[in-house]
Automatic annotation (TrEMBL), chains A, B, C, D:
The species this protein was found in: Rubripirellula tenax
Full protein name: Glucose--fructose oxidoreductase
Pfam families in UniProt: GFO_IDH_MocA, GFO_IDH_MocA_C3
GFO/IDH/MocA-like oxidoreductase domain: residues covered: 151-282
Domain Gfo/Idh/MocA-like oxidoreductase N-terminal stretches: 12-143
Gene: gfo_4
Keywords from the UniProt entry: Oxidoreductase
Residue ranges the record marks as coiled coil: none
Gene Ontology MF terms in the entry: glucose-fructose oxidoreductase activity; nucleotide binding
InterPro entries, A to Z: Gfo/Idh/MocA-like_OxRdtase_N (IPR000683), Gfo/Idh/MocA_oxidoreduct (IPR051317), GFO_IDH_MocA-like_dom (IPR055170), NAD(P)-bd_dom_sf (IPR036291)
Amino acid sequence: MGINAPLNRKLRMALVGGGAGSFIGRVHSIAACLDNRAVLTAGALSSNPERSKASAADYGIADSRAYGSYEAMLDAESKLPEDERIDFVSIATPNHLHFEVARAAVEAGFNVVCDKPMTFDLAQAESLLETVKNSDVVFAVTHNYTGYPLVRQAREMILGGELGEINAIRTQYIQGWLRTNLEKEDQKQAAWRTDPTKSGAAGAFGDIATHAYNLGRFMTGEMPDTVSCHLKTFVEGRKLDDYGTAVIRYQNGALGTCTASQISHGRENDVEVEIDGTKGSLKWRQENPNEMIFRQNGKPHQIYTRDPNAPHTNAAGAGACRLPAGHPEAFFEAFANVYVAAFDDMAKRAAGESFERVNTVYPNVYDGVEGMYFIQQCVNSSNENAAWLPLKHAAARR
Amino acid sequence: MGINAPLNRKLRMALVGGGAGSFIGRVHSIAACLDNRAVLTAGALSSNPERSKASAADYGIADSRAYGSYEAMLDAESKLPEDERIDFVSIATPNHLHFEVARAAVEAGFNVVCDKPMTFDLAQAESLLETVKNSDVVFAVTHNYTGYPLVRQAREMILGGELGEINAIRTQYIQGWLRTNLEKEDQKQAAWRTDPTKSGAAGAFGDIATHAYNLGRFMTGEMPDTVSCHLKTFVEGRKLDDYGTAVIRYQNGALGTCTASQISHGRENDVEVEIDGTKGSLKWRQENPNEMIFRQNGKPHQIYTRDPNAPHTNAAGAGACRLPAGHPEAFFEAFANVYVAAFDDMAKRAAGESFERVNTVYPNVYDGVEGMYFIQQCVNSSNENAAWLPLKHAAARR
Amino acid sequence: MGINAPLNRKLRMALVGGGAGSFIGRVHSIAACLDNRAVLTAGALSSNPERSKASAADYGIADSRAYGSYEAMLDAESKLPEDERIDFVSIATPNHLHFEVARAAVEAGFNVVCDKPMTFDLAQAESLLETVKNSDVVFAVTHNYTGYPLVRQAREMILGGELGEINAIRTQYIQGWLRTNLEKEDQKQAAWRTDPTKSGAAGAFGDIATHAYNLGRFMTGEMPDTVSCHLKTFVEGRKLDDYGTAVIRYQNGALGTCTASQISHGRENDVEVEIDGTKGSLKWRQENPNEMIFRQNGKPHQIYTRDPNAPHTNAAGAGACRLPAGHPEAFFEAFANVYVAAFDDMAKRAAGESFERVNTVYPNVYDGVEGMYFIQQCVNSSNENAAWLPLKHAAARR
Amino acid sequence: MGINAPLNRKLRMALVGGGAGSFIGRVHSIAACLDNRAVLTAGALSSNPERSKASAADYGIADSRAYGSYEAMLDAESKLPEDERIDFVSIATPNHLHFEVARAAVEAGFNVVCDKPMTFDLAQAESLLETVKNSDVVFAVTHNYTGYPLVRQAREMILGGELGEINAIRTQYIQGWLRTNLEKEDQKQAAWRTDPTKSGAAGAFGDIATHAYNLGRFMTGEMPDTVSCHLKTFVEGRKLDDYGTAVIRYQNGALGTCTASQISHGRENDVEVEIDGTKGSLKWRQENPNEMIFRQNGKPHQIYTRDPNAPHTNAAGAGACRLPAGHPEAFFEAFANVYVAAFDDMAKRAAGESFERVNTVYPNVYDGVEGMYFIQQCVNSSNENAAWLPLKHAAARR
């Protein structure tokens, strides 16, 4: 069977953002091409045309396809013959630019893979949702942690009832890199992520708590009801939160907690999820992603490893693996799993076949909206002394 | 140097509670005698005189010192010659009996080691505080986790400024044993701990969240300001909370979280503390108590093991060790550390020397009051939709 | 039921060795008395009568029972009335004194608990075996790691066939404290343990490889056939091995490896055992003793925790626990488990009942002989360029 | 800077082997292309022309470049214009075919990346070494574990003296997948790996012990002197070893141990290395590759994580990272690191620049020879009752 069946050819990728100093641009490029199903073909890597072309060489993009702006790129690519034209646009800019690029790409008929948070604010997200709904494109949002095989394994176990009714969802995302006032030291990543004009209304809660909250939602499918949130800015002079904790009531009665930190010395990227159900409990940590602990009273603690061949590995888990057990897979492979799931739909679209547009395996525009709602309501709750505010957005999907 | 200098003899212990089916009575007896500084001499192990005597044989207590009630014991022991009479009373009954036993023992002039929570409610605790203040006895409360060498090491590091200003205190105490309705199956431990007439106003929050909260307080010395708490009862028909989470604002601006569960499948006794300061962060888990991770940006993660001979081990940590590194110490030894610290003061009292009565190494009646205040305010907050309530009790001590 | 039934009284302990600077003397005293079944009554803590008496106060031994030599002690105690006289002698001297003390104690009719290695050399061990056989005393050797609940659990699982036929036994005992020439710095422990006139023919292999090898033997019951050993002395000027590795062929065809080190920087007391059988495999580490991993192809890795109430915990494992799961037990409790098993037999003997003298739960004189044979054959093999030498001693018992 | 400077274009890859059922073919393809520096252009994926073409579609190889044999491929590619022709050949066939493919490719002037063990036997390896020496090609052997960032960090630390003189090197490679007679169940991987006509003289020792031994050599640079080895076949009817242990004497006096297993239930791919030096010790495990423990007496245990920005990360470690700390990298990225190091030299060669041919960062033909010598001497030693045999091959390089 050929690549990207029924299309049987590689998909052509365009990257927006990702110039010198970018972290996530390179991630998108590696992840998208990891399985040899896509080839990076075009880019608007910088708004400065010269820098855009210079960066293109780093990525192996031909000069002719290195554009000085996303507008120029969309315009030029639209005019290319179908068998040369890009298939999808990956958006790896700072947050405040996501919306305009995504909207333009969708309106031009290109599939989109957009980094998270999806937009700068909720209004943009809701607007983008309408744009996507009115189009026929594939639209993915890179809540990349959902791509880990054991995260997908957990989701399938939970939706299949193996944990029983869900009572508690504890999530944490602990980092330490912003412990000091790095944004004043000309560190590009720190600068835009702590700048409310680029990052949005939240700092840690926009950048990382969204991931943690999303993981709990993805793994359990439980619908949120209300949230109470308390945000803190511990580093002097910083304009956005660098620490915070949210308590979440789910509609089924479950209680959730979500804590995010950027100021915990020495902590790297510690995303943890613990889920308690009436029949079993789970724990997973992103920094050791090839293991998950499943526990049931009266039984030994069971360590599920990423093992595509194990009888206890379900289809969702096994389908996300590239290697046998003991050969660790990690961040890039998980990120790539978001891409390849979207590729399946892009290939169907290109071949004129129908495909699911709401309940996709990969995070999509609905999840993007929900993420923005989470950020907005957490910030609002924190501003109102941790008041309980609604958290269930109309667009939330199981 | 002799045992219990300047007293130079073993201390005589009396145990109240601890008859058949008791867990904590045996713990007190082993912990108190572990270092050969005390000998279990008398007991009122059951309110049933026959059962009391039967249990005494298990403990090696002579029949003549096995009493049918604590009142009878205090009365009889008071009349014994000074060189036979008990020195202290350990209280290991269900919670609702702590107060009356403790008050009577103090009033009879005996030192007391009381299990936690110290009393049934705050009013009793405040009353007992006055009783103790008006006496000259040594009064310890077994927040036993404070006895772990690395917990004491952490406290000394933090009070000495090694972590800088404290920003965040995350604590968890996760168990799973009450996942099912064990209290209906004639399990003695489950029965009283879920019975509001014996356990008090809270379930999980009285039994275990108090420990977790106390650990954060002990390790950092930070004073609480307000609390918002959300309690849940997930097991049908249960009368007390079996899950909950509290958010705590400290007076210095730090943010705390404390989550407790009795319904997490397969989880045993997972007390975890994470503390973030401006200069470093710490993590400690009770289930692996001989390790603590100390992290600082730009340095490798540093695992401090329980090592009395290491240059980085401080006096508080080293003083709590009995064995060199790599020979693990655990629950009993930590529990015993609370006892031996109290013994030091008991020996001074018996020898007529003065001793500290407020800022002791071991948890004392002040901490007992604070624990009861924590329980009351958490329950009240939860009843008021997680409202923010004061958490700083006048008796709180650093 | 009373203590030490059918005897129904505490056993009286005498300690030989254990004066100032001793590590293992204090361990014996705490372990023996931990369960309140023995009371330290007499001691010959030092060969210097004044120091012996001074040390006695530390241990709470009355002056009248503090002796200047073990001979004096055995003599005096033998003449005391039966209800005052000691029941057993614990030997915690340097290795070269074990034999004479043990023989004298046995010949005087006292039970003995002897530290390991049991004697200075094999000839002494074989001689002592005869002495013990000709007596009716209880004789235990403190291969204390056999007392860990999960080690006993493993033994029962393996002997019951749960791992199938045993193919491989990998053991390691890694320390780092003798990395430098500590014996030249007046460190008492280092001094005698590296001195061939006190420690015996081997250094690391006598002090710690014996433990590791014994654990493999204890857990599997497999009989050794031959050994090839390679010893090294890495620290200049040291007279005994501080590193080495042995390969062991077992009679059933299994292959064993045993590596011991005293020169591995930062390593504490890392005893590890991995056992492979045709039906399952096990791994246990002494530094985290409340966990054991049991693995079977096609199943999740199963973590057995020390849990006396779990359905998968067998009688041997549960019987060695004092606390429910999650309340860690450790070194002292394991050491105490060797003692209490011996106490059961001492009580029977004192009550005139019969008791098992070969296949005891606790390590005994047969195991002591086997340990000395292991040391001798490892040293001999190493001296002969790692030649294969017999390892099955006639006294070895399953 | 462009890709593969000074060449500034992607390298064209040909894959030999890797048809349906192959594990390692897919690994080579993903790893080689991960960084967008190579594109898979041609293949001889199967010796059956039809199957070769069918497999080509899976890999996105054009039909015109899908060959029915490696001979046909080398012949046809040699005739293509320079700007179309392949740059290198990756060999992912069963072991017995490596030699002929590699020799032919080298002789045709193509660079080669060959899986390990490099050849079927030592004679082939030595012959191939001469062929490579007489050519000007880049020749890499995928001892892929050397590509892990922390392995390279360790090597640079050790060669720089941070561990002092090396005393001990303990390696293990433990698997369980061949616990049963899988080769009789038509499992392709098991079939050829246990077949002496395809795998070579050794089973576990050829397939995995070579990796473990190579890691110790790579990390320390220490030269071996002699080896004593004991191989076992535990699964009935199997023709090659599935378990074994080797003791290695290094020329500097260090002692090494290397144990490999394919029959340890539930064990996945557990490559562990522990190294003891006079100044420090290291431990690294492949299954958790983003951590390494560095220990020094008197200091806390130091966990080095894969952190390109940490001050304690050296150039070799940092240069092997693609992601900041806490975003785990794993097997593919390590494998890719072997490739990109070879690409640097391929680019130089293509641009007519000189490049190092012996002491390369990536494992090369010299290491391939040494690996074959290790296998041969281990098998011979085992056949001679674990006799000590020479292990230093003349081609061994530091």
